[in-house]
Amino acid sequence: MSSTTSTTPPSLPPTARPSKPASEALLNEKWDHAISSMLIRSTLGLSFGVIFSVLLFKRRAWPAWVGLGFGAGRAWEEADATFKTGAAANRKEGLRVIRP
Q1: pLDDT per position as a tens digit, 63-95
Q2: In the 8-state DSSP scheme, what is residue 99?
Q3: Would the pTM of this model clear 0.90, i.e. be above it?
C-alpha cells in the first residue's frame, strides 16, 4: 500500500465583509416591524369585520372592508410615528427640550 498524502491548501483567514451602517440596520428593523405590524393588524381588522358581518350585518361585505381599513390605518400611523421619531428616540417622550 502506498501512502498518499493529501495536500490541503493552508486555510486563509476569512475576508472581512463590510458591515452595514448602524442607520441602515435601524431602518431595516423599522421596516420589518412596520410590515409585520401591517399584516397582523390588517388581518385582525379583517377577521373582526367578518365576525361582525356574520353576526350583525346579515353577511354584508362592508364590515370586513372597514375592519381591514381600520387595521391597516392603525398600522400605518404607528409606522409613520416610528419613522418620524428618528433622532428623538433617545429622549424621554413627552418632555420638551429647551436649548440655550
Answers
A1: 899 999 999 999 999 999 988 886 555 555 566
A2: -
A3: no
**What is the DSSP code string of 4-66?**
----PPPPPPPPPPPPPPHHHHHHHHHHHHHHHHHHHHHHHHHHHHHHHHHHTSTT-SHHHHH
Give buried/exposed letters for 57-80 (b at 16+ CB in 10 A, else e): eeeeeebbebbbebbbebbeeebe
CA-CA-CA-CA torsion sign (40, 42, 45, 47): negative
Grid cell in block for residue 83: 419613522
Residues contacting 53, CB < 8 A, separation 6+: 59, 60, 61, 62, 63, 64
* Closest by Cα among 76, 65, 83, 64 to 40: 76
